[in-house]
Backbone:
């Protein structure tokens, strides 16, 4: 039903008390894939994570959905990154040097301006966790640039429109240190999504229930996905969140037939992560999940 409902979006922004309020106008949610095949961080088993080349590669492999993580920079921009700092495991300095572990702790995205962040190479260094990952010089993109690149790639190559599963990487402990407060995070993210007119194809996911609660309250028809890695019951997780999300997205080991039934009875989709073998993907499909998130989008 949700795809038939109108969702809020808009094109005008108002500055008020230091915050950007995203003004909205009605648009329609697109029909969600019957089975969402998702490239985790663009498919980091194959390409440098959370980068434009990774997302294009995932589109070439035919995924329905691009999974990605977002942070806010010191100058208030929405950038793609899983980690709150520049990760020394797969990044090198602008002049090609290794980054020490201690040094990395000071390279906090929320404390750095985007122009500075963009100079780091996040794709050339061998990443032992993903030995098959293609090596190429690339950078952390802004969400706005990523959307522009993906949409242009789809158009030029006559690909099917993909969905965007976008995570807000924030937490109460990180407020003011690694991330702004949840209201500011949501408004900055929504401003980009509204400006790019992409909301019908967006799901916003988070472990931080605060961002989802804000979206539900202020933009109730934007699809949300609650990430969980806990052993609480379905009912307790729903009660913690305080509303029924479009998707419940558990660590895949937590998924069983009972959880799938409870979700479906409540009209909630089940989207496990991060499933990295063909056998496990098939087992989860047999349990009736509504999609799978994998580092290896060539497994679908
Ligand atoms: O989308 C689910 C998954 O991405 C959550 O884990 O830590 O890889 O962002 P993480
Ligand atoms: Ca993620």
Residues:
């Amino acid at each position: 039903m949700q795809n038939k409902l109108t969702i809020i979006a808009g094109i005008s922004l108002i500055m008020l008390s230091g915050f950007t309020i995203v003004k909205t106008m009605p648009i329609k949610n697109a029909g969600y894939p019957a089975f969402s095949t998702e490239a985790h961080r663009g498919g980091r088993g194959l390409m440098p994570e959370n980068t434009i080349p990774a997302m294009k590669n995932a589109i070439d492999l035919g995924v329905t959905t691009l999974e990605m993580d977002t942070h806010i920079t010191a100058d208030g921009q929405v950038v793609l990154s899983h980690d709150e700092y520049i990760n020394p495991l797969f990044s090198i300095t602008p002049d090609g040097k290794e980054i020490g572990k201690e040094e990395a702790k000071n390279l906090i995205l929320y404390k750095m301006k985007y122009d500075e962040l963009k100079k780091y190479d996040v794709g050339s260094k061998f990443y032992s966790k993903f030995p098959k990952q293609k090596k190429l010089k690339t950078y952390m993109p802004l969400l706005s640039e990523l959307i522009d690149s993906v949409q242009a790639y789809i158009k030029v190559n006559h690909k099917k429109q993909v969905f965007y599963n976008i995570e807000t990487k924030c937490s109460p402990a990180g407020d003011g240190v690694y991330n702004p407060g949840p209201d500011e995070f949501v408004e900055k993210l929504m401003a980009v999504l509204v400006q790019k007119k992409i909301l019908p194809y967006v799901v916003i996911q988070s472990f931080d229930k605060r961002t989802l609660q804000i979206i539900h309250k202020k933009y109730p028809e934007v699809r949300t996905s609650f990430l969980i890695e806990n052993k609480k019951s379905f009912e307790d997780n729903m009660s913690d969140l305080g509303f029924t999300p479009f998707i419940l997205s558990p660590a895949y080991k937590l998924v069983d037939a009972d959880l799938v039934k409870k979700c479906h009875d409540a009209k909630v989709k089940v989207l496990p992560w991060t499933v990295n073998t063909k056998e496990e993907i098939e087992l989860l499909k047999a349990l009736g999940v509504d999609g799978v998130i994998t580092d290896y989008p060539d497994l679908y």
Q: What stands out?
A: The chain is about 30% helix and 20% strand.
